[in-house]
Amino acid sequence: MLSPAERRAKVRAVIRVASCNFIEAYDFIVYGYYANYIAATFFPTANEFASLMLSLVTFGAGYLMRPLGAIVLGAYMDRKGRKKGLILTLGLMAVGTLSIAVTPGYAAIGLAAPLLIVAGRLLQGLSAGAEFGGVAIYLSEIATPGRRGFFCSWQAVSQQVAVVFAALFGYALTMLVSPEQMTLWGWRIPLLAGIIAIPLILWLRRSLEETEAFRHSRHVRSTDQVLRILAANWKLVVNGLALTVMTTTSFYLITAYTPTYARQVLHMAPQTVFLVTLLVGLSNLGWLPVGGMLTDRFGARPLMLLVTAAALATAYPAMIWL
Amino acid sequence: MSDPGVAKLLAVLLLYSVYFGLYNGALIPLLAEIMPAEVRTTAFSLAFVTATAIFGGFTPAICTYLIEATQNRAAPALWLSLAAAISFGAAFVLPAFQSARRESPHPAYVK
C-alpha cells in the first residue's frame, strides 16, 4: 500500500503527464472537427466532394508522418528519457497547430496557403508519432504493481477529455458565430487555443519527473542501436500494429469521422453534431478506466478477444438499423 | 433530420464507444509490456502509429469514399468489422509472437 504522501505524488505525476497528452491530442484532433471549413478556406474547388476529400487526405497525411516521428522522437525518448522527449514533442505540436491557425486562405496567398497547411499538418504528425506512446510508457512505468491497466488508461482518458473539450468548444462557437463567419475566421479560434501548450511546456519543464524505470535501466546510445533491436523484433512490432487496428479504427470512426458523417450523410445541424460527439467522448471517458481495471483483473488478451468478437457480430447490424 | 435519427446515431456510436473503451483499456498496458525494454517507446509508438496511419487517419477519407462508391450508408461498419477481424487474429496468435521477443525479457502481462 502507498502512504498518503506517495499516493498524492502518484496522482500529481499522472495529472502532469495527462495534461501534456490532453494538449497534444486536442491540437491533433481539432483539424478533423473543422475539416469542412479548412476545405473551404484552403482547398477551394468547384466540387464540394473533391474539396472535402483534399482536406481529409491532408488530415490523413498527418498520420503518414507519425511512423517517422515514432522512430526519430521515440528513439530520442529511449535514449534521453521520457521527460525531455515529451517536452520536445509538445513544442513541435504547438508550432504545427499555430501555423495552421494563422495561415491566410487560398483567396489571399494562393497555392502557398494549402502548402503551409500540409506542412503544419506534417509537423503535427511528426510530434504525435512519439508523444502518445511516450505518455503511455511513462504511465506504465510509474504504475503501482497490479494496477498497470488502470494507470495506463489515463493516457486515453486525457485524449478523451480533449475530444470532449474540442466538442464543447465547437458547440459554443457555432452558437455564437454565424455559419458565414465560421467559414471566414471562426474555425481559426479553436486552433489558436492550442497556444496554451506554451505555458504548459514551461510548467512541465519544472515539474515533470523522469521515471524510475528509465533512470535505473541501461539505455540505448544511438538511433542505430534502436533500429537494430527493432529489426530483431519486427514480428512483435507487426503483431502490435495488428492489435492496434481495432483501437484506432473504432476511435477515429466515432470521433474524427462522426462530424463529417452526421453532416454530409445524415444532414444534421452542426449543433446536433457537436452534441453527439460530446456524448460519445463522455462515454469513452467512462469505459476506458473500466477496460483498464478489467485488464488488471482478468488479463488483456481475453478482454481483447471478447471485444473484437462482439464487434464482428454487432457492428454492421447496428449501422444497418440506423 | 428528425430526432429519432439523432437518437439512433447516438445509440450506434455509444455501442462502438464500449468496444473502443474496453479494447483500448486492455491494449495500452499490453503493448507497453510486450515490447523490448530498451526500445519500449520506439517500438510501442511505431506499432501504434503505423496502425493509426493506415487505419485510423484515413478512416474519415475511406468511409467518405466507401459511402460514395457503394451508396450504402452502413459502409463505415464494414470498415470497422475488417479492423475487428484483424485485431482478433492478432490477439489470437499473440502468445507465439511474444515468446519470440529478443533481449531484455521481463514478465508478460498476458494471461
Topology at a glance:
The complex is a heterodimer of chains A (322) and B (111).
Chain A: H1 4-33, H2 35-42, H3 48-64, H4 66-80, H5 82-102, H6 106-109, H7 112-142, H8 148-176, H9 179-186, H10 188-192, H11 197-207, H12 212-215, H13 223-232, H14 234-254, H15 258-264, H16 270-298, H17 300-321
Helix pairs in contact in A: 1-5, 1-7, 1-8, 1-11, 2-3, 3-7, 4-5, 4-7, 5-7, 5-11, 7-8, 8-16, 15-16, 16-17
Chain B: H1 3-34, H2 40-56, H3 59-70, H4 75-98
Written as H for each helix and E for each strand, in order along the chain, the element string of chain B is HHHH
Content of β-strand of chain B:
under 5%
| N-to-C series of helices and strands of chain A | HHHHHHHHHHHHHHHHH
- Our estimate of the beta-strand percent of chain A is under 5%
Number of strands of chain A: 0
Average pLDDT of chain B, to the nearest integer? Answer: 87
DSSP summary: helix tally of chain A: 17
Q: State the helix count of chain B.
A: 4
Overview of the structural elements:
The complex is a heterodimer of chains A (322) and B (111). Chain A has 322 residues and is mainly alpha-helical. Chain A has a single domain (4-321), classed as Growth Hormone, Chain: A. Chain A has helices spanning 4-33, 35-42, 48-64, 66-80, 82-102, 106-109, 112-142, 148-176, 179-186, 188-192, 197-207, 212-215, 223-232, 234-254, 258-264, 270-298, 300-321. In chain A, helix 4 (66-80) crosses helix 7. Chain A starts with a helix and ends with a helix. Chain B has 111 residues and is an all-alpha fold. Chain B has one domain. Chain B is built from 4 helices and no strands. Chain B has helices at residues 3-34, 40-56, 59-70, 75-98. The longest helix of chain B has 32 residues, at 3-34.
Q: Keyphrases for this structure?
A:
heterodimer; A: about 325 residues; mainly alpha; Growth Hormone, Chain: A; B: about 110 residues; about 0% strand; disordered C terminus
